[in-house]
Design a protein that fits this description.
The chain is mostly beta strands. The protein folds into two domains: 348 residues, 3 Solenoid (Pectate Lyase C-like), CATH 2.160.20; 89 residues, Immunoglobulin-like (Sandwich). Helix content is 8%, strand content 43%. It starts with a helix and ends with a strand.
């Protein structure tokens, strides 16, 4: 079994152990739909705080309400980790209002996981797919698509929430006549991690995300191909808010030739390790009214057109800090919405692993969180690893490994490069401080060094062939 498959099995086992512990220690009961209850809503009405509702594959034409209950509602994905269950388990609102409602102070331990949420909303609703008012649920591993809201929030409507979390989800193809085709958020604090917001439509503002009078933190988020007919902010529109974007890609947003990546009305928007590229009319704009407290803070990001392409700068402040570039990010296939980086992208190894702004730590990555010399810009880290087995002296080694591990300081390195290529071995502390930096020649397949002095502890090692990361791992020193 290869390492990837082994790790997948380990993750599933850990997931099952986690839920076994959770169910047996905290849950009063587990209810299955349709085994124990015919509908999701009757199951919710039946259970108590701490209980879990598991929904089997199928299409459920319902408009459900958590009714303030602190429960877990999930598909079989919750138990298996099999993402195919997300595509097999539909909650369909049948255009009869929101699909899922949170409105009674549900906490973060109220979880919605593993569904496709679709066909929500009607001509007189706010929040087509998910409606949230004064609640803080945890939404994860969801597809929220093809929902409609007349007022605001085609996909998700969030008001007066202080810790709303969305993770590992896709928000696609939702429409709204008001603001926020994908997400509408006001007077709230929201966190989005590993989320795609794509192909959503707003007629009056913010095709992708609307944030007003609150805070939003986005990490590893893709915002692409959203449209707004009557507002500059096709990707994001922000009003009187603080938004932090870390490793976010905002691209190809706009209607025809109209629409910017981000529109800023009296907001502070922090952009780190991100890409804004090929949005129809431009990347960043200030709302065309003189709000002196509107600002952009930009570092280690790829901005199409550079600082000169930020419109209406007289109405706000642009803090153009270190590490920014203006170069084609070279996506794999933007036509088909594949915004991973190609191997020749200038965004690879161009971001930062640590960034502090005004005393606040915005980025803090360990060397194990990225695969190159440095992190990459944008929503997706380019996978530079290449692992091949080869035989030497009748023994099988994995390509580019340190042996033994744990190690007493005398390292045996097995590596193999293509002819005439060179590389290097880098060893750094868990805090990212480099302690070893050796040049490697293609003429040597073994290195045995008695002079490497490392203190006891755990390190990260990385082996490069030219600028390509061939392998990385943890190295334990025990003397």
């Amino acid at each position: 079994m290869n390492k990837a498959k082994h790790m997948k099995h380990v993750e599933i086992k850990l997931l099952l152990i986690f839920y076994f512990i959770r169910f047996n220690c905290y849950s009063q009961s587990i209810i299955y739909v349709p085994d124990d209850q015919q509908t999701i809503q009757t199951a919710i009405d039946t259970v108590s705080d701490g209980d879990t509702v598991i929904v089997r594959p199928g299409t459920y034409y319902e408009n459900i309400n958590f009714n303030g209950k602190n429960i877990v509602l999930g598909s079989l994905f919750l138990l298996t980790g099999d993402t195919s269950y997300i595509l097999q388990t539909f909650i369909d609102g049948n255009h009869n209002g929101y699909v899922v409602r949170f409105g009674n102070n549900e906490p973060n331990t109220a979880i919605l996981c593993g569904f496709t949420i679709t066909n929500g909303g009607s001509e007189m609703t706010e929040g087509g797919g998910i409606f949230c008012y004064e609640a803080n649920p945890f939404l994860k591993n969801l597809i929220i698509k093809n929902n409609l809201s007349y007022y605001n929030g085609g996909g998700i409507y969030i008001v007066n929430s202080n810790n709303f979390i969305i993770q590992n989800s896709l928000i696609i193809g939702n429409q709204v006549y008001g603001g926020g085709g994908g997400i509408y958020c006001i007077n709230s604090t929201v966190i989005l991690k590993d989320v795609t917001i794509s192909n959503n439509l707003s007629f009056h503002g913010a095709g992708g995300v609307f944030v007003g009078t609150g805070n939003a933190y986005l990490k590893n988020v893709l915002i692409c191909k959203n449209q707004s007919y009557q507002c500059y902010g096709a990707g994001i529109f922000s009003s009187n808010a603080v938004i932090t974007l870390v490793n976010v890609t905002i691209t190809d947003n706009g209607f025809l030739e109209y629409g910017y990546g981000i529109e800023n009305e009296s907001s502070s928007i922090i952009i780190i390790n991100s890409i804004l590229w090929n949005n129809k009319e431009g990347q960043l704009i200030f709302y065309p009214t003189p709000y002196s407290d509107a600002e952009y803070i930009i570092a280690f990001s790829d901005i199409d057109g550079g600082m000169e392409n930020i419109d209406f700068p007289e109405y706000g402040v642009v803090n153009w800090l270190e590490g920014n570039i203006n170069a084609d990010p070279v996506f794999v296939d933007s036509v088909n919405s594949d915004y991973h980086l190609n191997s020749n992208s200038p965004c690879i190894n161009s971001a930062t692993s640590f960034y502090v702004l005004s005393g606040d730590t915005i980025v803090n990555l360990s060397p194990d969180d990225y695969s190159g010399f440095a992190p990459d810009m944008g929503a997706y880290e380019y996978d530079q690893t290449e692992k091949i087995d080869f035989h030497k002296d009748n023994m099988t080694y994995e390509k580019n490994m340190i042996y033994p591990n744990p190690n007493n300081g005398n390292m045996r390195l097995v590596y193999y490069f293509r002819p005439d290529n060179e590389g290097r071995l880098v060893i750094c502390t868990m805090q990212g401080i480099h302690v070893v930096n050796y040049k490697l020649s293609a003429n040597n397949n073994y290195i045995f060094d008695n002079n490497v002095l490392l203190e006891n502890g755990m390190y990260i090692y990385k082996i490069y062939e030219r600028n390509l990361l061939m392998n990385k791992g943890k190295l334990i020193i025990v003397k």
